[in-house]
């Protein structure tokens, strides 16, 4: 598809949070007006950093980021910032503009219709579900009518209907869109090109075509590079064997050995720098606290019906090895339900005595962003052990360097892996998982699903990822949408 002039260009951009370890090394790429492009790469490669450089939140250490003259840019972030949670919807959108607008309420209502969200302008952000907050973040970007729209994991927390609506919207959207997402089916429906950022080479490669075709092209190229290197390694080893033989013969043979050494050095220099795909975490087990009695007893839950809170009676008891899946549309109160169970503050749901609870919050608000990664792992251990902590961290790709960093410096995907590493060290009796696939690299998801399936404690889970859910056998499904519709 033909597009207009270049609207975004990176020119030899180098950047790193640690100047001795650049995250981006002389990155070059350009995006034309009206293009819809996917930014892909391994967890921690720097995809969100690219967005921060585009937004001007960060600045290159060398090189330059160019925007077409007069072009505007806005971003729909992955997670609602904590400082916005107490704001009303109106106050949240007012932050999108440098000056007060007389028609702000009208603009908000129009953009909320675009993202299919009905809510009060006085309602605090924190009283919206994860899916509703995802829509608010998208609407916040759209209300600015940007020339370049940046979407960071936009399908996280959206139900099937929400993803379908977002997809159709993006197909019709006339301006430039850059998307970070792990949802391959979603990306393939509207992507026209891919920017592939590699965590090891720290370079950017640009491809044209739909998402699936590009992924296949990258895989084919990687295989060609591996085969070429395998041939060259064999030739190099053959020459080294001859060097060892000739070097001991003296005379002309020794000169031949010297010539072969030069050839070996040249061959090693010319070996293809094969792109290493990101490592997949290895299979792991989440140990469980061995308790005989009920882990949680739920007799009544709070839901939202037409925006109004209702109380609904239920009869659910979670014991060891019992798994409950909670389903329902965005905005009905699933996240709030999980939080009230975890906090044990609702008389309608009572945790058993001495239950150790592992809670995966979809926004990672349970993690202290100012704590060191090492300390975030150490705090959940019953028996402290530096050796055990580091071994488990390594299994979840949390390196020694990362353990010294603050939790807030991790990518969202790394925070997700940190949560599962904490579960392994904690050995909880009850797991409560709220959208555990959010932000996680798709390569890791089958491994995580197997670990959840093998977990012998109690489990309560909410997920809008059907392929992930299908890998886990649930004993019971609670459809809160159906429950709310039946209540009077």
Describe the structure.
- Helices cover 37% and strands 21% of the residues.
- The chain has helices at residues 47-55, 89-94, 104-114, 130-142, 160-172, 184-188, 211-247, 252-270, 334-343, 373-378, 386-395, 400-403, 412-426, 445-454, 466-469, 480-486, and strands spanning 6-15, 24-32, 36-41, 62-67, 73-76, 148-152, 176-180, 193-197, 204-208, 296-305, 308-318, 323-327, 349-351, 357-360, 430-434, 458-462, 476-479.
- It is of the alpha/beta class and 488 residues long.
- The strands form four sheets. A six-stranded mixed sheet has the order 5-6-7-3-8-9. Strands 14-15-16-12-17 form a five-stranded parallel sheet.
- The N and C termini lie far apart (53 Å).
- A hairpin with a 6-residue loop joins strand 8 (193-197) and strand 9.
- It contains 16 helices and 17 strands.
- It has three domains: 6-215, P-loop containing nucleotide triphosphate hydrolases (Rossmann fold, 3-Layer(aba) Sandwich); 223-270; 296-486, 3-Layer(aba) Sandwich (Rossmann fold), CATH 3.40.50.300.
CATH superfamily of the largest domain: P-loop containing nucleotide triphosphate hydrolases
Rough shape?
Answer: globular
Counted beta strands: 17
- Helical content stands at 25-40%
CATH architecture of the largest domain: 3-Layer(aba) Sandwich
Largest sheet: 6 strands, mixed
């Amino acid at each position: 598809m033909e597009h207009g002039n270049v609207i975004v260009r990176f020119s030899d951009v180098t950047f790193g949070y640690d100047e001795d370890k650049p995250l981006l090394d002389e990155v070059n790429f350009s995006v034309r007006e009206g293009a819809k492009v996917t930014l892909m790469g391994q967890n921690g490669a720097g995809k969100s950093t690219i967005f921060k450089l585009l937004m001007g939140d960060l600045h290159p250490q060398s090189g330059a980021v160019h925007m077409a003259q007069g072009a505007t840019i806005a971003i729909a972030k992955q997670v609602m910032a904590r400082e916005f949670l107490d704001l009303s919807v109106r106050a949240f959108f007012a932050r999108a503009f440098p000056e007060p607008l007389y028609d702000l309420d009208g603009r908000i209502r129009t953009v909320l219709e675009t993202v299919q969200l009905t809510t009060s302008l006085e309602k605090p952000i924190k009283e919206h579900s994860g899916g509703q907050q995802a829509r608010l973040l998208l609407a916040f970007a759209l209300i600015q009518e940007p020339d370049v729209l940046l979407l960071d994991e936009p399908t996280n927390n959206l139900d099937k209907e929400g993803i379908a609506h977002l997809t159709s919207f993006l197909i019709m959207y006339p301006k430039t869109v850059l998307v970070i997402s792990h949802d391959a089916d979603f990306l393939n429906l509207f992507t026209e090109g891919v920017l592939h950022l590699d965590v090891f080479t720290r370079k950017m490669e640009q491809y044209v075509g739909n998402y699936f075709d590009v992924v296949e092209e990258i895989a084919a190229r990687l295989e060609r590079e591996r085969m070429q290197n395998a041939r060259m390694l064999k030739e190099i080893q053959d020459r080294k064997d001859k060097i060892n033989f000739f070097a001991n013969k003296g005379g002309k043979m020794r000169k031949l050995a010297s010539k072969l050494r030069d050839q070996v050095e040249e061959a090693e220099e010319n070996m293809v720098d094969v792109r290493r795909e990101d490592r997949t975490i290895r299979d792991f087990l989440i140990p469980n606290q061995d308790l005989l009695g009920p882990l949680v007893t739920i007799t009544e839950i709070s839901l939202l019906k037409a925006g109004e809170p209702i109380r609904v009676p239920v009869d659910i008891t979670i014991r060891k090895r019992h798994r409950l899946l909670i389903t329902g549309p965005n905005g009905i109160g699933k996240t709030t339900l999980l939080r009230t169970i975890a906090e044990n503050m609702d008389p309608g749901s009572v945790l058993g005595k001495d239950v150790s609870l592992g809670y995966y919050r979809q926004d990672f608000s349970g993690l202290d962003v100012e704590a060191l990664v090492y300390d975030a792992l150490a705090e959940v251990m019953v028996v402290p052990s530096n050796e055990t902590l580091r071994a488990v961290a390594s299994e979840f790709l949390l390196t020694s360097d990362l353990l010294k960093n603050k939790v807030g410096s991790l990518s969202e995907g790394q925070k997700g892996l940190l949560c599962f590493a904490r579960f392994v060290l904690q050995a909880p009796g009850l797991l409560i998982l709220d959208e555990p696939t959010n932000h996680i690299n798709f390569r890791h998801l089958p491994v995580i699903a197997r670990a959840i399936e093998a977990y012998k404690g109690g489990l309560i889970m909410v997920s809008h990822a059907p392929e992930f859910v299908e890998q886990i056998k649930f004993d019971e499904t609670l459809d809160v949408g159906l429950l709310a519709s039946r209540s009077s």
